[in-house]
Design brief:
heterodimer, A: 201 residues, mainly alpha, 69% helix, elongated, B: 202 residues, 10 helices
């Protein structure tokens, strides 16, 4: 009913969550409206594939909204949804790495040479032609440089400089000590600086 | 904040500089140290490039696709068996709590049945005692009510009406008529309006 519809703009996330818990479908839609773009943007830049990012974002929201009763209002809703989104992305990336490569090489490799050839080379990610197209779509060199960072660095740098989250919230989202978050962000910036300097040359 | 001699800007200081709140001693160093200045400018350039990344949004039907898989709780509905089951098996903690409660209930039921089977004489004697006590309390209550009724000022008038058969018959007839009138009035009040009212004149 239109007359009973609350003015969403004036409500905090916690208040919208209370309405969702009371069974108001419009409150669920409001939470999606507020966070679909930032969560999708984070996941898109984590996995660098639009279709996959939409699937992961959908998985994130379905998980979060079906477990809305387990959300604790003393924490920020944004931290909660970003945490679920980031875990979903990291799980996916780990699964993908396990499916294709392991640090010690393929489990099916029978000789040391084969193991060496299939071992994961950290920091030497080769871009496929599809990745290159995606990078262009995303805006060029900086996107490609972010895409080559370790997933943990990527999460930190995106949350800090794209979503503008404070260090403390990033630590809460990623379940990491504050000092580690700062270190990751500084290292990520350093790696980006070196990557971009290399590209400029 | 003091600056150790010979020290260059740490990442934390560069963060402070980016946020525009670098301590004065460090700012003085930055003005003189070319290496730190280049580093700070390079970091600022990176941050500006990341912050300027284009906005990306999911497809327009994203919310509909999410909502198709979300179960919105109905606050007035009795929770379905599936929902309760899902909630019970949601986490290890909830499973442990549910198992403990079930174990407690089953344990107390088994204990109760066992005790009843081995103490039938005790149960019988308790039952007899309760029956006797209950009967006594009911009888005392009834007597109290009757004596209270007899002492009411209107009691003698009612008594004289019941004593005379003609008056009793008239009283009963009037009471029956009042009852039937009440039933009739109630039926009129509860009757649904006819369709003729809604479509009058069409």
């Amino acid at each position: 009913m239109a007359s009973s519809r609350p003015e969403w703009g004036g409500l905090s996330d916690q208040e919208v969550v209370l309405l969702a818990r009371a069974g108001q479908e419009a409150a669920y839609r409001e939470l999606i409206r507020r966070y679909e773009r930032p969560v999708f943007a984070l996941l898109f830049r984590m996995v660098r594939d639009r279709e996959l990012a939409e699937d992961l974002a959908q998985e994130t929201f379905v998980k979060a909204l079906n477990a809305i009763d387990s959300y604790r209002p003393e924490f920020k809703f944004s931290s909660w949804i970003f945490k679920i989104g980031n875990n979903t992305a990291i799980d996916h990336l780990r699964r993908r790495e396990l499916d294709t490569l392991s640090l010690d090489g393929s489990p099916h490799a029978e000789t040391p040479e084969a193991m060496q050839a299939t071992a994961l080379q950290i920091g030497a990610r080769q871009e496929s032609p599809l990745d290159t197209v995606e990078a262009k779509e995303l805006g060029g060199a900086i996107e490609a440089a972010i895409g080559s960072l370790r997933p943990e660095y990527r999460s930190c740098i995106l949350l800090r400089h794209v979503e503008g989250r404070p260090y403390e919230e990033i630590a809460e989202i990623l379940n990491l000590p504050l000092g580690t978050v700062k270190t990751y962000i500084h290292r990520a910036r350093n790696e980006l600086r070196l990557s971009l300097a290399h590209l400029k040359e | 904040m003091t600056r150790p001699s010979g020290a260059h800007l740490s990442p934390d200081e560069i963060d402070s500089w980016l946020a525009g709140n670098l301590a004065r001693t460090w700012q003085e160093h930055l003005d003189q140290c070319q290496a730190c200045l280049e580093r700070a400018h390079a970091e600022r350039e990176i941050v500006e490039q990341i912050s300027a990344l284009p906005l990306v949004s999911p497809a327009a039907d994203f919310a509909d696709r999410v909502m198709a898989s979300v179960v919105v709780p109905d606050p007035f509905a009795i929770r379905s068996f599936q929902a309760t089951q899902r909630r019970l098996f949601a986490t290890r903690k909830s499973v442990a709590i549910a198992a403990s409660v079930a174990l407690l209930l089953l344990g107390s039921m088994a204990g109760s049945i066992g005790w009843s089977l081995t103490h039938q004489e005790t149960i019988a004697s308790i039952g007899n005692w309760l029956l006797a006590q209950g009967g006594q309390v009911a009888w005392l209550g009834l007597r109290g009510l009757a004596s209270n009724l007899i002492e009411q000022p209107w009691y003698s008038g009612i008594r004289s009406l019941v004593d005379n058969p003609v008056r009793l018959a008239i009283g009963s007839a009037l009471a029956s008529l009042a009852y039937l009138g009440g039933v009739f009035a109630l039926r009129r009040l509860l009757a649904l309006p006819t369709q003729q009212v809604a479509h009058a004149g069409i």
